[in-house]
Design goal:
Layout: E1 2-9, E2 12-18, E3 23-28, H1 34-37, E4 42-44, H2 49-62, H3 80-89, E5 98-99, H4 100-111, H5 118-126, E6 139-140, H6 153-162
Helix pairs in contact: 4-5
């Protein structure tokens, strides 16, 4: 059984989903891939304890309290490759950024391969079903481009600014730097 609740955030409406024990989804507005990453048969229910915990985590996050990812049970649904990518995302520090290529290199090393496709990593990052909590907004292009955020590039930039990330050198493709 899956449950959902809505959360009003500074970056827009968020849909939070869970099973009985873990957060399984967090989507900003009608973000890209939402339908393919959302469990079927979700029942809206605001009083599920784990959803209350998820809302409290988001309250702390948007209040700038840097909540720990370990304090909230999560269970993203996806295959082994995606799970590996999402584990790496959880290691990116609050306010930090990394690149798709860096994650690809780390994965290649973990898998005993010579190389790994940054595009494959980008696909897994883009299909992250638990945005913000699994911080896919902290992944940028090789030269600092703010690309590939299913919730929207404006939301990605807003989250990075909220976290105090160093925005020097980051840019939206086709626009001026985000400083």
């Amino acid at each position: 059984m899956y449950y959902s609740t809505n959360y009003k955030s500074p970056i827009g409406e968020i849909l939070l989903a869970s099973d009985e024990n873990s957060i399984v989804g967090l989507w900003i507005g009608q973000q890209k891939y939402m339908g393919s990453t959302m469990p079927k048969d979700i029942t809206p229910k605001d009083d599920v304890p784990i959803l209350k915990d998820g809302k409290a985590w988001l309250d702390d996050y948007f209040a700038g309290k840097k909540p720990k990812l370990s304090g909230l049970p999560i269970a993203p649904m996806g295959g082994p490759f995606k799970q590996q990518v999402w584990r790496i995302l959880r290691e990116i520090p609050y306010g930090g950024v990394t690149t798709y290529g860096s994650i690809a290199k780390e994965l290649a090393k973990l898998m005993g391969k010579d190389s790994m496709s940054a595009q494959a990593v980008g696909g897994a990052v883009g299909h992250n079903p638990i945005s913000i909590i699994i911080p896919c907004h902290r992944v940028v292009g090789a030269k600092g481009s703010l690309t590939g955020y299913a919730g929207g590039i404006d939301k990605k930039a807003a989250l990075l600014v909220h976290e105090g990330a160093d925005m020097a050198g980051l840019f939206v493709p086709g626009k001026s730097p985000c400083i």
